Inverse folding.
């Protein structure tokens, strides 16, 4: 009865989309608050337009530099930096993946006892909350300049990323396969090896490939704080306004990242 | 099916043929060789004296850094505000630029698959593969240090990420709704506004908040290269070895990251 009268009142009126937030005052408060914040944010943004105008020439020079990148005059530095970045990427990925497998197992609630679970989740949380570059600063202060600090930083960051996703995958796995292995009287290690590992392996390989990709991108900036890799060379090139060398380095980074992405795409497709 | 004979004359199933097994072992051998090469390079450019000394130095830094200098917080409010603005305005500008790129990159909305789509994909890959710190370095060389360079660096870096997720959402839309709008005789823009836009709006909101969260993290370290925000205080405290201040800044960054993650999770939960 009431439904019918409600319909009657609606007939002949134009339909309007129901608003996302029902309470009108809250909707208006949020809109006004958001706008006020944006205005305040824009107001504090100090732009020195004359400086920007001066810089436009340099910007144009930089874009032109991409037309004729200079690989030659600093080739020695670029090669050393690139090799160091790649070496850090490979080393840190191998060690990071190797460490994140046990931690990932420990961080999965369905196979780990509670104390192990809490410790492993703690490690994952710390590793994810700290940014790579901040970790790198601290590790450079502790271990000195050079690629070792970068290697340790990337390994540490890999653990947080990979263990978390691996643990989530283990938690989402099919229990019955593990139980079937258990029923044969398998020990814990056999259970993991034959019941759990085959289910998560394709995803682990896919994620590892993705992480190698990320590690290379990160290794390109660790040099800014002295942790080895191409970043130091790049920083010097920018400081000296050698845009043609910087363009060459950036092009190499883009090409390597694209190649890694393509490669990981092929490997992931073959895994499925 | 690969089999092997077992003592006693029987035959047993095995997973791979002899050739496949050999190839697998060769792959492992090459992998290990690459890792050993990488480790040797890292080890060669490491001063091992510092590494053996590391526990003592770490302990020393820890003892210097505690307790954090809480009174320093008074000088941090402005950098925190700047950091927030860099992340928010950077995300805003990134979205403004990412929307057209995403429409040009999606198979079902691009005007030309052979001419324009590859260009859009190139923009996505190249902005994504270069870290925001490198963008910041470049922009500081061009437009000078400050918050403005940080905002632009964050926004350029975020274009690729937002556009990639957005064009994937556009490709997944329900075509029948678009056909229904087209059947009413709607123009190309009307189809976009009433057929495509409402379907991708939730994804768009989700992506914005997700990227905003990442940008808060990234903008905390932009100051290390001079692009404004709390990183400036971090780098000056590090340069003067004011460890109690460094400790406080790290705590502030940690809290900011945790809060932004919480906000983004809440908002995404409300949208989806």
């Amino acid at each position: 009865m009431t439904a019918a009268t409600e319909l009657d009142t609606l007939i002949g009126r134009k339909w309007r989309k129901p608003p996302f937030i029902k309470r009108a005052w809250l909707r208006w408060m949020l809109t006004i608050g958001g706008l006020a914040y944006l205005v305040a944010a824009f107001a504090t943004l100090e732009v020195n337009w004359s400086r920007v105008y001066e810089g436009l020439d340099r910007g144009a020079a930089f874009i032109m530099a991409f037309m004729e990148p200079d690989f030659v005059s600093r080739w020695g530095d670029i090669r050393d930096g690139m090799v160091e970045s790649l070496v850090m990427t490979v080393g840190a990925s191998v060690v990071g993946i190797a460490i994140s497998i046990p931690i990932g197992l420990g961080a999965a609630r369905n196979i780990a006892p509670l104390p192990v679970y809490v410790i492993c989740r703690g490690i994952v949380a710390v590793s994810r909350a700290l940014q790579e570059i901040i970790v790198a600063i601290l590790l450079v202060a502790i271990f000195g300049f050079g690629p070792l600090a970068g290697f340790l930083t990337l390994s540490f960051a890999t653990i947080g990323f990979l263990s978390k996703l691996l643990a989530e995958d283990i938690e989402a796995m099919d229990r019955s396969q593990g139980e079937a292995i258990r029923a044969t009287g398998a020990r814990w290690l056999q259970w993991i090896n034959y019941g759990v590992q085959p289910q998560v392996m394709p995803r682990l390989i896919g994620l590892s490939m993705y992480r190698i990709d990320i590690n290379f991108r990160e290794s390109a900036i660790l040099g800014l704080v002295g942790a080895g890799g191409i970043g130091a060379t790049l920083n010097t090139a920018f400081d000296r306004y050698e845009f043609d060398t910087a363009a060459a380095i950036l092009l190499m980074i883009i090409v390597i990242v694209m190649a890694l992405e393509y490669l990981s795409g092929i490997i992931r497709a073959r895994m499925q | 099916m690969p089999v092997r004979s077992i003592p006693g004359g029987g035959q047993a199933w095995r997973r791979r043929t002899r050739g496949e097994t050999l190839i697998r072992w060769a792959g492992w051998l090459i992998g290990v060789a690459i890792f050993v090469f990488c480790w040797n390079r890292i080890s060669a450019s490491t001063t091992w004296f510092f590494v053996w000394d590391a526990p003592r130095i770490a302990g020393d830094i820890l003892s210097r850094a505690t307790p954090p200098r809480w009174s320093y917080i008074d000088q941090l409010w402005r950098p925190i505000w700047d950091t927030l603005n860099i992340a928010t305005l950077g995300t805003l500008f990134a979205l403004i630029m990412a929307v057209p790129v995403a429409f040009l990159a999606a198979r079902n909305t691009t005007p030309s698959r052979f001419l324009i789509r590859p260009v859009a994909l190139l923009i996505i890959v190249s902005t994504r593969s270069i870290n925001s710190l490198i963008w910041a370095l470049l922009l500081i060389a061009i437009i000078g240090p400050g918050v403005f360079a940080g905002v632009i660096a964050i926004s350029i870096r975020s274009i690729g990420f937002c556009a990639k997720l957005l064009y994937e959402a556009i490709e997944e839309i329900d075509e029948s709704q678009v056909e229904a709008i087209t059947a009413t005789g709607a123009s190309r823009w009307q189809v976009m506004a009433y057929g495509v836009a409402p379907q991708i709006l939730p994804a768009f909101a989700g992506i914005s908040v997700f990227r905003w969260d990442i940008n808060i993290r990234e903008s905390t370290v932009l100051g290390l290269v001079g692009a404004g925000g709390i990183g400036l205080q971090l780098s000056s405290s590090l340069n003067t070895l004011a460890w109690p201040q460094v400790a406080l800044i790290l705590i502030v960054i940690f809290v900011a990251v945790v809060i932004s993650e919480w906000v983004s999770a809440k908002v995404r939960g409300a949208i989806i």
